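Help! Submission page says 'invalid entity' but I think these are all valid:
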Amino acid sequence: MTSLGLYIHIPFCRSRCIYCDFYSTTLPETWQMRYVEALRREMEMVQSRAMRLSADGLSTLYIGGGTPSLLSPHALRLLFEFVERNFTLQPQAEVTIEANPDDVTAEWVSRLRDTPVNRISMGVQSLDDDILRTLRRRHTAGQARQAVGLLHRAGYTNLSMDLIYGLPGQTRAQFGADVREVLSMGVPHLSAYALQFEEGTPLAEMKRQGTVDEADEELSLSCYLQLLDLTQEAGLEHYEISNFARPGFHSRHNSSYWTGAPYLGLGAGAHSYDGERTRSFNCADVRAYVEAINQGRLPSEAEVLSEKERYDERVMLSLRTSQGLSLTAIGRDFGPAMRRHCECMAQPHLHAGRLQKKPDETLCLTRQGLFVSDDIISDLMA
Ligand code: SF4
């Protein structure tokens, strides 16, 4: 079956976390129905494009945000009704919804049963209440634990949690305790990211004012090493630099981004890719998005990737995954000269043990290479 992912962005948050630079807004709940209605129209506008990309329907559907678990019961029900009216979900489709732990109540879980959702991804970030308060997350560690219990009891086993390391006030031991606890809860998928001080966020401003410090590189590295050890001991596969999963629980939707498969993104700030060379971006503003859709036009801009951009993207995305970068595919898709360039630039890293070449002609990061992946990727780019 052909692979096609559909991403729907729900850009509403009750409050803004201090480190976040995703597009989301704290507009009141009255905006939800206007937005979901605009999504319906956008679905109708892109339906034929979806058919051209995959006659087999959607292999994955991902409702991300923002905070999709904030949607009112009515808005959530309509959203899935519109999806099912406009697209076909393949029989084994992976259907993910992102949730904030404090939204995962018994009532919310029971509503979920009326939807095709079979995977829940929770932004937990930490299981330390002091750190959660500092980040201005609105949930507590207890609510995250409770959410997992509720979902398990309702039969949802395909769960994912996000954690962050390098947080203000966090120690290596505390991050290790978070990872151990997530693993002991029986959550089969874990994503863990180093805290970024993104320009324009309150966190970056706090750093400028000297009220928080960035974790030193040694601490971040030591947290990451610990993460690799703990997840490996627990039998999780390290299938992308920041992603770990028990066998059979890889995120199929996110994997499609890394393998260059086509996807459609709906909603304010969402991106689409045709799987070849065209990307498009919806405007990241709920009001402007709804207004444009109501006027019958897609509020998106497209860009056609150059050969160099496509090659660089292939290097960057493939090397982040455990499948690695296929030299055969580079030669086939970009020509023998690019394959030679790639092999030549890889040589110093192969000699130093930061890259390994597998018998099937793929280049993969070694454990040593994981720590300097950005440098290696940049060296191999065109
Ligand atoms: S809930 Fe998620 S999307 Fe919303 S502000 Fe926090 S990190 Fe950003």
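Support: the input was valid. A stray whitespace character was the problem, and the output above is from the cleaned input. The chain has two domains: 5-258, 307-380.
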